[in-house]
Amino acid sequence: MNSNALCFNARIERAEFSLEASLTVEPGEIVAVIGPNGAGKSTLLRSISGLVPLTSGSIEIGGVTVDDPAREILSAPEARRVGVVFQDYLLFPHMSVADNIAFGPRAAGVGRRHARELAADWITRLSLTGLADRKPSELSGGQSQRVALARALACDPAVLLLDEPLAALDAGTRIDVRAELREHLASIGIPTLLVTHDPLDALVLAERIVVLEQGRITQEGLALDVARRPATTYVARLLGLNLLPGQADDGHVTLTAGGELHTAQRNVSGAVLVAVRPDAISIHTSPPSGSARNVWRGTVEGVEPIGDRVRVTAAGPPTVMADVTAASVIELQLERGTQVWLSTKATELEVYPAGGTAPQ
Amino acid sequence: MSRRHRTTTQPPWPVAVPAVLALLFLGLPLLALLIRAPWGQLLSVLTSPTSLDALRLSIITATAATVISVIVGVPLAWLLARAIFPGRRFARALVTVPLVLPPVVGGIALLLAFGRRGIVGQYLDQWFGITLPFTTAGVVIAEAFVAMPFLIITVEGALRGLDGRFEDAAATLGASRLTVFRRITLPLIAPSLVAGAVLTFARALGEFGATITFAGNLPGVTQTLPLAVYIGLEGDPSEAIALSLVLLAFSIAVLVLLRDRWLRTGTPT
User: The whole model's pTM is what?
Assistant: First the structure.
């Protein structure tokens, strides 16, 4: 383990909530924490930045222990080398862009002129040229985000934290800003931890994903692995996947909620999860005659347009979501209560052991 | 927020009758003051020694009362808004008492506290030879007692309405608590601080009851504008009216000054 890593290994007890997690971010690594509202994502960031004290355990930043109740160590936020990009950015509204960026160096005792030079440097690096004298209210969302990033980095932090860095942006600018942010984060070289509820942000920006649910880590792994093999229904739903738990035996899975599936993977046995994309499931109004190994009866429970597709929920067992075209909805006359046949190929099923954390 | 009234539902016309009465009731006295003002001799009346003394004294004492209010009132507002300590609710209630207390009662209370026989005043007198009643300092104290709550309440409201996350952000950028207060908190509540100070000054300038009770009515020493107006009515009404005009002009100036700031930052969101 690198001594400049961010090490969080701690528990936080609050009135109706507890967070217990163990997490290490290496220098240059970008880790995304995803989880539903109230999962403890913000508490995690606030405890690292020193705004919430730990109940037990420890936090280490850049080789320095900043919080450890057992050893009676607790550094104030201003004493930690943490750069934070807040949700809504929280740029100081009464200061210019340059003064916002120079704030950290100034607070650290850097002279006015030198702080201004530092700020000018960051303004160039984050393509904010020409905006130095603007007030935050005169910036676009993407510009505000870059100023917030520059302000956090100008303090020469040992770790960078980003709290929902894209949540304040509208859908249109979001794609561009996400790509920009990815570029900027790639060159930072310090442990970077970002918190988001958007799986796409996590997948695009981070190499590793940590899933936090109800104050506990439920899955941790490379972004691609988490996307392919979600460990919990929360992640599966975020990613729009069907997730079916069951018992596997020689390519045959008996599902916990009823029904069974044939898979192409014979090497997995015991408690497993089966992930299947909604567009890999076909809907028919008569028994299908194709090559699909898995066919079962279902009743349509919901028909809901998403983008250019229509998502049909059909009660089984197994109960699944299937994506079809609008034309098929009309052709098959799908509506609540319609009896249908569902089918999927054995090769479309991703089968993997249940029990969370995928190996790295 | 739109400045225009939304008049999708017009009130029924009979409402207009009492409404106009109320408006007349509030407006007519001011109109009378303007009509009967000795416009011709305004300058000579206002430059008479009594008037000038009262004007000068009023401005000095109201300014002093405002400065004192800012120096001790802002920290108190900060504590009331942010600190958790036993008796905070009581402290907040105490701050609002002078707002509703008849000023005369305030004057008597001040006498009992800081008068020569008062519970604090007797020691001020014995140990330091300081006497407050019937001095200019006494006027400042009476005005500060009555006016300071305006500052405290305005600033406290602003501090409560302030998004504390800005201060969190400043802390993560390495700023000490004092730096955060000086460079973030104070500038962000500055409009409310100014509004509170102007209100305090206006209230101090108009103070009558507590001043006359605690500090008396000595021309040049404790006779402020409102006292000179009251005394003037018995001797030289034109002087009273002229001085009243000065106070009215100042009140209107305060209203104009605060109109925007008050609406924008005076109410916590």
Answer: 0.76
